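We include the entry.

. . .
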Amino acid sequence: MTWVPLVLLLDRGAGIWWQRLLGAGTWVLLLALLRRESSLVRAQVAVVVVFATAVEYTFSPLLEVYVYRLDNVPAFVPPGHGLVYLCALAMGRSRWVHERLPVLVTLTLLIGGAYAGWGLLLSERSDVLGAFWFVCLVGFLCWGRSRSLYVGAFVVVTYLELLGTWLGSWEWRTTDPTGLVSIGNPPSGAAGGYGWFDLAAVLAGPVVLASVRRARAMHLQRTA
């Protein structure tokens, strides 16, 4: 919640090499924070970084659903996704959130629904994608295994999307590549879209961790 906004501010008007320096700093911070996390969380963050990076390169330079200031994927974006996941996870596993989870889920649905409704019906720029992603968020909050994680993601992702587009770090196109789906800048339900990264982490993280452990065990057997 502090580092990523700081990077976005430092990136304003910067060139490619300054972006790469910011990227290196973001990687250092992410790896430092992961040192105190469990192996499972590390695996989950790895899943998020890989999945989100693939999405970034597909939907930004290739399809141009949204574009960054220098028409690239800034070097701080892949590790930044890891920080976003860690931040949402830290919020979600806090005692304060767990004690108030039903209320916070309800507030998330009400605020997110109001935002999506405004984007779809009242905004000067219609936002069908945001409304669709809000429906995804409703599904994650109602039937997902990690509701507190999605509450945290709603706060973090909505905040960063509003800040990033306001600063001009990236901009969403008015429609998707087909021209059929209108998009807000940013989409109101962006947290619901990001929820698929969280879901991938929750589902694939344990699988990745088990695979790494089996590979290590096989390597030790061969070397022994």
Residues 50 and 78 are 8 Å apart (CA to CA).
